[in-house]
Amino acid sequence: MSTQKQIDTQIVICGRGGQGVLFLTRLLDESAIMIGSKVISSETHGMAMRGGSVASSVRIGNYESPLIPSGEADILIAVNEHEVPFNMHLMKKDALVFVNSSIRRHNAIHAEKIARLLGSPMVTNLVLLGFASAHAGFPFQYAHINKVLQKISPSKALELNLRALTEGYNLATA
Predict the structure, then answer these.
(1) Lowest mean pLDDT among 28-37, 48-57, 96-105, 125-134
(2) What mean pLDDT is reported for the chain?
(3) What pTM was computed for the model?
(4) CB neighbour list of residue 144: distance below 8 Å, 6 or more residues apart
(5) Domains of the chain
(6) Which of 26, 62, 72, 131 is least surrounded by CB atoms within 10 angstroms?
(7) Is the alpha carbon torsion for 111, 121, 10, 158 positive or negative?
(8) Which pLDDT score, from 0 to 100, does residue 155 have?
(9) What is the pLDDT of residues 98-148, one digit of tens each?
(10) Counting beta carbons within 10 angstroms of the beta carbon of residue 147, is it exposed (0 to 12), middle (13 to 18) or buried (19 or more)?
């Protein structure tokens, strides 16, 4: 267990089916567990097939329910920019918002483009997470997420997953 301070953070992750929202949820859950924090999470699916809305909530700290009330989330990670308007009601006024977007703006990167350059749009989620991990206020540092990713990633995808996380991080720190 790490000596990192206890975390009290509520995160919403949103995207479309097949974009890795649930993998990011698991990665953040495991990151919290690894440092000894309590974590509870939940996911909701729109359409049951690939391409429908998917959102998850990750509550790290002393929470009893997995659902985040309106206006209480600290962080939004939007793997699909079209899902942002449907989830903004959950955010605090000063929430950190990280978006995969083709339009350059504050805390937005074209993570899908970077993932395609790496050879697979399936790692868009990890590019965005790497980018988010470089920002002050994000609960986990890049090195910690990297360590957890090495633990939970399927071996056949590990190298690509690590490259995607690193590319996102490097983009934020360049």
Answers:
(1) 48-57
(2) 93
(3) 0.93
(4) 2, 4, 31, 34, 35
(5) 9-173 (3.40.920.10)
(6) 62
(7) negative
(8) 96
(9) 999 999 888 999 999 999 999 999 999 999 999 999 999 999 999 999 999
(10) middle
Provide the angle, in degrees to the nearest 10, between the axes of the packed helices 142-152 and 21-34: 110
Confidence of residue 36 (pLDDT cuts 50, 70, 90): very high
Q: CA 64, CA 70: separation in Å to the nearest integer?
A: 16
Token pair belonging to 171: 């983009």
- HEC states along the chain? CCCCCCCCEEEEEEEECCCCHHHHHHHHHHHHHHCCCCEEEEEEECCCCCCCEEEEEEEECCCCCCCCCCCCEEEEEECCHHHHHHHHHHEEEEEEEEEECCCCCCCEECHHHHHHHHCCHHHHHHHHHHHHHCCCCCCCCHHHHHHHHHHHCCHHHHHHHHHHHHHHHHHHHC
Task: Pull the structure tokens for residue 110.
Answer: 């074209």
Are 48 and 16 a contacting pair, CB within 8 Å? no
CA distance linking residue 94 with residue 109, whole number of Å: 20
